[in-house]
Amino acid sequence: MTTEFELIARIAELFGAPEGVAVGIGDDGAVLDPGRFDLVTMDTMVEGVHFKRDWSSPQDVGWKLLASNLSDIAAMGGGPGAFFLSMALPADLDPQWPEGVLEGIKDAARALVPESFEVSAGGGDLSATHGPIVLTMTLMGEASPAGPVLRRGAVPGDRIVLLGQTGLAAAGVSILSGEVEVEAGQFAEALRAHRRPGAQVRAGALLGLYGVPSAMIDVSDGLVQDLGHILKASEVGARLEAYSLPHHPELVLLREEHGVDILKLMLTGGDDYELLMTIPPARMPKIWDMARRHSWDVHDIGEVRSPDEGMVVLGPDGEPVTFAQGGYRHFEAR
Ligand SMILES: Nc1ncnc2c1ncn2[C@@H]1O[C@H](COP(=O)(O)OP(=O)(O)O)[C@@H](O)[C@H]1O
Ligand SMILES: Cc1ncc(C[n+]2csc(CCOP(=O)(O)OP(=O)(O)O)c2C)c(N)n1
Ligand SMILES: [Mg+2]
């Protein structure tokens, strides 16, 4: 491995001092300019849990680490700024591996972050590990002038809206794990969704700026589980019209040719990093207008109901469906 000092110098070289950080890499802690960052999020990626070295390149892993954090800031209706990066790496690791992670973070910053926001490194930490690789990123951001969009705020009558598509990344995992056997070269988008998910950075910031959603979350664990978080925080129920969910052509192919239960993938799969929100009916024309202007993939997938109704998921034929689990659970034997 490269020494930690070389690695820190490399990070500083690749990601120059961010605006809003008065003292960045090089001191015991960072000093932030007052009044700039008012959002903070953190996500961890553990080898074997979130990625496998033989499924993903280090560039993919770096990309996904930034994307998952960008997605959380987007879900607050804000924009990203400085990140803090912790890497626990085995001492015998090829030095190309962390270098690849940094490249992947850089690629994702270029591809997913609009020019109006600058993403760079404010600091971090490095350690050896005798176990799996562990990467943690803290990302600071700025709420929109209209204020942050929270998970609480949904009221009965609001529509439930999905920006993007779910199920593809989980399909990628079933293919990579060999659970579903496919021919080489097939299902490129499912594999990409697992390896290099997008993040709705621009959309999240614009939705926050225009105050469109009453509540918002990013779908990281599974649509049903993450909708559940909005419902709990807002103390409401919901009817999720699963028949309105978009069916990606690769998912349709997986169902038709491999008999995969794609409804389960779409509703509970996880790793999607799309935005799920609730919108008062009066503001629905606004999102349709934004969708048209920005070519967003927007789907009206249900309604917020009174709390006593709980969450009802209506399947393809309009009948209620249930799942043993609404999404990914970390502390479950598998
Ligand atoms: N170890 C922890 N200590 C304190 N708060 C935590 C911890 N883990 C998660 N949280 C908080 O719980 C909330 C939900 O976290 P999480 O399930 O990871 O959401 P997300 O899918 O948005 O990353 C967040 O507010 C997060 O900061
Ligand atoms: C090797 C591997 N197996 C399984 C998965 C699927 N998976 C792992 S964690 C997870 C949920 C998302 O991770 P989490 O740490 O809960 O993200 P957060 O909700 O905090 O953003 C999913 C769907 C994966 N990404 N990689
Ligand atoms: Mg998290």
UniProtKB/TrEMBL annotation:
Pfam families: AIRS, AIRS_C. ATP binds at residues 124-125, 151, 220. InterPro entries: PurM-like_C_dom, PurM-like_C_sf, PurM-like_N, PurM-like_N_sf, ThiL-like. Mg(2+) 1 binds at residues 43, 125. Residues 26-142 form the PurM-like N-terminal domain. Mg(2+) 3 binds at residues 28, 72, 218. The keyword Nucleotide-binding applies. It comes from the Bacteria. One of its GO terms (molecular function) is ATP binding. Mg(2+) 4 binds at residues 28, 41, 72. Residues 156-309 form the PurM-like C-terminal domain. Keywords: ATP-binding, Kinase, Magnesium, Metal-binding, Nucleotide-binding, Thiamine biosynthesis, Transferase. Pathway: Cofactor biosynthesis; thiamine diphosphate biosynthesis; thiamine diphosphate from thiamine phosphate: step 1/1. GO terms for biological process: thiamine biosynthetic process; thiamine diphosphate biosynthetic process. Gene3D superfamilies: PurM-like C-terminal domain (3.90.650.10), PurM-like, N-terminal domain (3.30.1330.10). Its EC number is 2.7.4.16. Catalyzes the ATP-dependent phosphorylation of thiamine-monophosphate (TMP) to form thiamine-pyrophosphate (TPP), the active form of vitamin B1. NCBIfam families: thiL. Reaction mechanism of ThiL seems to utilize a direct, inline transfer of the gamma-phosphate of ATP to TMP rather than a phosphorylated enzyme intermediate. This is Thiamine-monophosphate kinase. The lineage of its organism: Bacteria, Deltaproteobacteria, Bradymonadales, Lujinxingiaceae, Lujinxingia.
